[in-house]
Amino acid sequence: MVTLLVLFAGLMPSQDASARMLQAHIQRVVGVAATLEDVTIRLDWPTDAAAGELTLSAAAVDSPDLGYHYRDLHWRCPLRRTPDAHWTCDGALVSGRSAPLRLVVDIGAATTHASLATGAARFALDRNSASPDDTQLDLTRVPLVWAQALLSQAWAAGELKDGTLDGHLDVHAPTDRPLQVTGSLAVNGAAFQTPDATLAGEQLGGRFGIDYRKATNLTTMTLDGVMQGGEFLAGNAYVALPPSAVDVRIQAQQRRGAGWQLPFIAWHDGKALVADGSAAFDAETNLQALDLDLHSTDLAPLTGRYLSGWLAVAGLPDLQLSGTADARARVAGGRLQSASLALHGVDMIDPKGRFRFEGLDGAPAFSATAPASSQLGWTGGQLYGLDFGAARLPIVSGNGELRLRDAVTLPALGGTLRFDGMTLRPPAGDNGADIRFGLTLDALDIGQLSKRLGWPAFQGQLSGRIPNARYSGERLIFDGGLTMQLFGGSVQASSLSLERPFGVAPSLTADLVLDDIDLQSLTGVFDFGSITGRLAGRIDELRLVDWSATAFDAELHTVKTHGVGQRISQRAVQNISSVGDASFATTLQSQLIGLFDDFGYGRIGISCRLSNEICAMGGLEGADTSGSETGGFTIVQGAGIPHLTVVGFNRLVDWPTLVERLAAASKGDVKPVVE
Amino acid sequence: MKRWMGMPMSAVLALTACVTINVYFPAAEAKEAAKQFVEKVIGDEAQPAQPTPEQPKPEQPKPDGGMAALMQFDPLMLVGISPAYAQGAPDITIKTPAIQAIQSRMESRFDASLRAGFDSGALGFTQDGLVVVRDASKVQLKDRVAINQAVADDNRDRKAVYREVAVANGHPEWESQIRGVFSKQWIASARSGWWYQDASGGWKQK
To answer: How many C-beta atoms surround the C-beta of residue B12 within 10 A?
Structure first.
């Protein structure tokens, strides 16, 4: 089996008659699996000794098929003849400066045994002259890094870090047919990584049946077994394998000069995920084609095992899923061609309370090319604490976008939301998602809205039409406006936009116009004391960040209306004064206030321009200001007797303090301060 | 759009006449604001581990009565130009509750996970004011998902800050300039040994 190309051997009788020495120098030894260069064999055997000393060294050992290359190899061992006529030799093998391994060789009449060991690791090789093409390999706790060169043959970037192999392999290497390796291997604690760390695995365990065949032009491999425990990641995808076994079957083949093809992939992780498909890579191990069918009978464990990497990056790390789902993805030419997802009774809950969907059902399909129709529905859900009802979306996909085929009506807050003409372009390259739709709100109950948002018990209805809404770059911008019927009047909202609706510090901007608001109902809701009359005004450039007001330019005033009385109760006066931090003053003596239950007024007006946490306050436009050396402003202009005027002096008011006092006033636990 | 310029200038203007001047981007003020923000998030280099006595946190003034208003009170109000203060002279403020909340969240995230990533060289500051995992091999696999999440969360916060600083100062159109100022500041405040991306996109170690 071993061909000696150049052989120079000499037997040199020693000067010392009591010992014999054999020395051979062979320039090159070529075997099927390896080539040895510059080989020296030397045997010293004292005449009466039981064993001789064998020293074997080679300048280079190369195994191009397996990818192993050693330099400066030395093996020194005592050579013995056993009673059953075997030659054995057991000694330390050193390659370069690496730690020595123990190499044992046992050659009988028909059998050859060799084993390489270090610590608990042992790699054994057996051959029998009856079947000269066959070699048996036994592995016991063999470090996985020993297989690095073998792996590099198939995957240049893969680096094995840790782990052991146990098992048995049969190598069948006939001279005229392909090399074949079959057997079974158990992997424990395997760790690997690519230099750029985009692919990595740790603590991976499993048992596999292996069938590897290598011919001149085609290499094939079949792996069939189970994975058990461990974790790996690829880019943002992170897989934490369950302690239970995952059945894995992979067929792979590689033609000379081409990339690996995986005509068959199966991954069966109980109820959590069953995946079957095929894939192909180019010569640089880039994914070229993929056809994958996925099925999950129980989505609950899926997020922890397979989706946590993506969800974490998307800002939804603890998303809860339940129900069943099927998915299919097809990649061709390195690009996603189509993807579909079929959901069956899926509940999706954001633990941060931003949204929840119940009973998601349907199969929204995405197609980059030919149009595809699909639909998606749900039985109910919640958005920022606001419930919405069942809906069914008819979806058409084509040309890389999703569209709603018909308008969709969604019951919410006792009324309806109607979406029409919706198109969605998923994120691609540097462009984020782009969504456009029209929205019609019909008779939403503000009472329910207030209750959900923890507002005072407002009563009224919200309606409106937004012909064009557009979401892109984390901004949702609405053209058109909404009208709220509130307290017998109306509030019109326009220039609405919402930034980062589900992200960091969601921020809402709007311009509001108030008209004909019944003050008695309004003050009743706030429990602020009673004011009768009608209110109008505007709140421009209102900006709520994280749902609290950070900026606006507001001006509110009463409007004299025929048949509507204009009275303000003692308590309301006191609350207005105390909210103003005693900077409001009345022209009445403080004792006098207590004598009257309410007062008539001519006008009430107040303005506040909020920015940087400071409210720049003003009062009635064109009203006389008394005590104006510090620039006071009139808030309540009295009428009749007793004549009451409330004047504010502090034009710059700290907004958080003002809000605190307003809240306290509406709870009735503020003591009036009157100067 | 016509606005008052910087504070001292507006005082002069108020004294002279009703002159208004086109608003320019207040680069120096923005830089100062960015520096305050960044240094607070990254922490004090001189005393990295010492538990310094608890400073009164500016984002929680908990004012009693008019004290807060007094604290915000500017002496210039006395000469009758107080409206200019409240109406947003182009001083760059980062004291809105939203920005303060994001800042303190970024500060705790930086201490909890990002600082170690910068120290090890796994993370780097990009030229556009974000953080990126530039060398994932420096991070143990078990920590990778957490660091990826921290980086994604931090970048969402960063984008929100750049936007909010611009909007809170009444100039949404300044967002990219604010971002530019902050990205320079992250690099300027970076500790020795941390990695950053230079203007041409190459990685450099400070």
So the answer is: 10
Rg, Å, chain B Cα set: 20
Q: Does A473 touch chain B (CB under 8 A)?
A: no
Q: Does the beta carbon of B98 lie under 8 angstroms from any beta carbon of chain A?
A: yes
pLDDT confidence of residue A63? 82
pLDDT score at A550: 86
Encode pLDDT of A407-422 as tens digits.
Answer: 999 999 999 999 988 9
Of A231, A313, A551, the CB nearest to B152: A313
Report the C-alpha gap between A203 and A491 in whole angstroms.
Answer: 62
Report the candidate in B177, B124, B129, B175 with the shortest Cα–Cα distance to residue B155: B129
CA-based nearest distance B50→chain A, Å = 31
* pLDDT tens digits, A71-88: 899 999 999 988 888 999
Nearest residue on chain B to A550, judged by CA atoms?
A: B96
Omega prior to A371 cis, within 30 of 0: no
Please tell me if residue B92 touches chain A, with a CB cutoff of 8 Å.
Answer: no
In angstroms, rounded to a whole number, what is the distance separating the alpha carbons of residues A323 and A379? 13
CA distance linking residue B34 with residue B99, whole number of Å: 12
Closest residue on chain B to A655 (Cα): B69
Mutating which of B4, B145, B148, B175 best tests the A interface, going by the most A Cβ atoms within 10 A? B145
As a whole number of angstroms, the distance between CA A254 and CA A262 comes to 9
Cα–Cα distance list, A511 to A438, A473, A479, A492, A552 (Å): 20, 22, 12, 8, 9
| B85–A contact, CB cutoff 8 A | yes
Which residues of A, range 293-312, sit inside 8 Å of B by Cβ?
308-309, 312
Asked if A653 reaches chain B (Cβ–Cβ under 8 Å), the answer is yes
Q: Quick check: A378 and A391 in contact, CB under 8 A?
A: yes
Measure CB to CB from residue B160 to each of A197, A500, A543 and give the nearest one: A500
In the structure, what pLDDT confidence band is assigned to residue B47 with cuts at 50, 70 and 90? very low
Residue with tokens 């307290």: A487
DSSP A523-574: HHHHTS--B-SEEEEEEEEEEEETTEEEEEEEEEEEE--TT---EEEHHHHH
Q: What is the DSSP letter of A51?
A: E
Radius of gyration of chain A (CA): 42
| pLDDT value at residue A417 | 92
Q: Which helix (H) or strand (E) holds A273?
A: strand A273-281
